[in-house]
């Protein structure tokens, strides 16, 4: 497809891809510029949404293809590190949910029937999970 | 506790860089570094690859 796996690397903090080379920077910059240019065109909104949506779908497919290539090239040690990091981030997720359930029970006296619907909770949860993943990878991949 | 190994010694004897060994073994340089620093035990298939590269027996390279 358009992008190349050599331009990107697995992210340490969070999920997805990190930019590794200047070609990767150019690819991301060009994609953003193209998206901005489409919405700046003097065309009806429906047409701009259609073009923008098409470009977004193309970029999404390309990104998924690059991610598959990047993550499949990891060697056995890097794959085991990624698995351990994902495991630790899921531990953090479980701990946060349990902490919220305990806090709700203590403060209201009744068990929580559902997780909070405010946007802050999933954002904080994702941030803590990403930190756990990144910290695990930094610890495992430190060089003497 | 990780296994001890003579990978660094054999690599030096064969005048090979970590990058060259990593390329031959199909792993990253960081993995070779981790093996030599005894921070990582290779899988059986990787250990066999390394022993084939150095023309040495497994137990001559890795020991516990």
Explain this structure:
The complex is a heterodimer of chains A (144) and B (64). With 144 residues, chain A is mostly helical. Chain A folds into two domains: 5-72, no CATH class; 76-140, no CATH class. Helices cover 70% and strands 4% of the residues of chain A. Chain A is built from four helices and two strands. Chain A has helices at residues 22-40, 45-72, 76-108, 120-140; strands spanning 8-10, 17-19. In chain A, strands 1-2 form a two-stranded antiparallel sheet. In chain A, helix 1 (22-40) packs antiparallel against helix 2 and helix 3 runs antiparallel to helix 4 (120-140). Chain A is flat, with a radius of gyration of 20 Å. Chain A starts with 7 loop residues before the first strand and ends with a helix. By secondary structure, chain B is mostly helical. Chain B has one domain: lambda repressor-like DNA-binding domains (434 Repressor (Amino-terminal Domain), Orthogonal Bundle), CATH 1.10.260. Chain B contains five helices and two strands. Chain B has helices spanning 7-13, 18-25, 29-36, 44-54, 58-61, and strands at 4-5, 62-63. Chain B is globular and about 25 Å long. The relative contact order of chain B is 0.24. The chains are: A mainly alpha (144), B mainly alpha (64). Chain A binds chain B through residues 75-78, 141, 143-144, and chain B through 26-28, 30-31, 33-34, 37, 39-40, 42-43, 46.
């Amino acid at each position: 497809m358009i992008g190349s796996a050599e331009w990107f690397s697995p992210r340490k903090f969070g999920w997805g891809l990190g930019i590794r080379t200047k070609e990767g920077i150019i690819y991301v910059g060009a994609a953003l510029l193209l998206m901005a240019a489409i919405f700046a065109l003097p065309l009806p909104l429906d047409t701009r949404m259609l073009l923008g949506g098409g470009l977004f779908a193309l970029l999404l497919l390309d990104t998924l293809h690059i991610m598959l290539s990047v993550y499949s090239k990891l060697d056995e040690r890097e794959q085991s590190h990624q698995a351990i990091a994902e495991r630790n981030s899921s531990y953090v997720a479980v701990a946060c949910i349990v902490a919220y359930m305990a806090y709700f029970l203590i403060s209201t006296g009744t068990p929580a029937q559902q997780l909070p619907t405010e946007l802050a909770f999933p954002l904080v949860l994702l941030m803590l999970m990403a930190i756990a993943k990144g910290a695990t990878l930094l610890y495992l991949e430190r060089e003497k | 506790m990780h296994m001890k190994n003579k990978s660094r010694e054999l690599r030096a004897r064969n005048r090979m860089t970590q990058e060259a060994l990593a390329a031959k073994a199909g792993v990253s340089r960081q993995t070779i570094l981790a093996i030599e620093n005894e921070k990582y035990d290779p899988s059986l298939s990787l250990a066999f690859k390394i022993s084939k590269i150095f023309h040495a027996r497994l137990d001559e390279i890795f020991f516990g």
